[in-house]
Amino acid sequence: xxxxxxxxxxxxxxxxxxxxxxxxxxxxxxxxxxxxxxxxxxxxxxxxxxxxxxxxxxxxxxxxxxxxxxxxxxxxxxxxxxxxxxxxxxxxxxxxxxxxxxxxxxxxxxxxxxxxxxxxxxxxxxxxxxxxxxxxxxxxxxxxxxxxxxxxxxxxxxxxxxxxxxxxxxxxxxxxxxxxxxxxxxxxxxxxxxxxxxxxxxxxxxxxxxxxxxxxxxxxxxxxxxxxxxxxxxxxxxxxxxxxxxxxxxxxxxxxxxxxxxxxxxxxxxxxxxxxxxxxxxxxxxxxxxxxxxxxxxxxxxxxxxxxxxxxxxxxxxxxxxxxxxxxxxxxxxxxxxxxxxxxxxxxxxxxxxxxxxxxxxxxxxxxxxxxxxxxx
Length: 377
What we know:
- This protein has helices at 4-17, 40-47, 157-165, 171-176, 186-196, 209-228, 291-295, 301-305, 310-318, 337-343, 348-357, 359-376, and strands spanning 23-28, 52-58, 61-66, 71-75, 81-84, 105-111, 117-121, 128-132, 265-269, 272-276.
- By secondary structure, the protein is α+β, with helices and mostly antiparallel strands.
- The strands form three sheets. Strands 1-6-7-5 form a four-stranded antiparallel β-sheet, with helices on one face.
- The radius of gyration is 35 Å and the shape is globular.
- Mean pLDDT is 83; it is low at 296-326 and 339-348.
């Protein structure tokens, strides 16, 4: 998924190729999933003839500042990207095919007095395209629900300490939460934790001052470097985990290993696969899954302590010895007449009335009456 560095790469190229130009026409493909709270036809009509004044970014979102509202706001999702006709290297590598328009394009901007074109592409349709009818898109949803962009709005050590201590979640999950801090995705989060030497399952509220300080330094350094290099891995420092993490499931002596020999391992945190180095990234106990074991606490004390819960009754009944037949089969407990009636939903009085009215019951009652008469004589 494109993260803070990849989005910065796109914004830089939009500022170079699109800003200051007028959109003469928009060719938009109808897609009710990708176009959010708008339609392709509305998107095209609102932007046709408009001039682009700037391209801006906040975390994983970016938008074009037009000469007047509305402004197009975009999120790349998993596979979204901007292709520029005159710049085949707007992606990380030259496309295999130079045919235009590119495959899976969702809209294309054609420019006034310019042969260049801008295409938005998304093969998996997980990207989102909106038009924001407000002077400042950052002040309205969805951008106002995002946390700070750590490059555009650098966070302080005090801010980070306060936010981490206020929650009890794995630190990797916290980094991925866009409402906490914007722009950090899977690989950037793993890189931050690797440089901070923190295990991804450490709980945020357990981090000590030295851990928070290391995390703050790594957070600022990694995000800034990712943006400054346009997330071009050939420009990353040689000691980055990113350069050695891609090869999960592959075989070979050098696959998923650092140059110093440490093995890159993987686990799932916050629903995402996390890469880490077991021997280097320290655990701040207890980590996820160890808290109950370390303190001797039961996993679900609320259920087990509730005397009226079904699970408690089942556990109590399970302690009773079971009757076993000669063949080794468990015998069903024998029911008394009263318990049998209760199982069938009958009260004792109702059951007695039914017996009395049956043929067998009438014979028994008649016999008892004759016996009582003989005794009376």
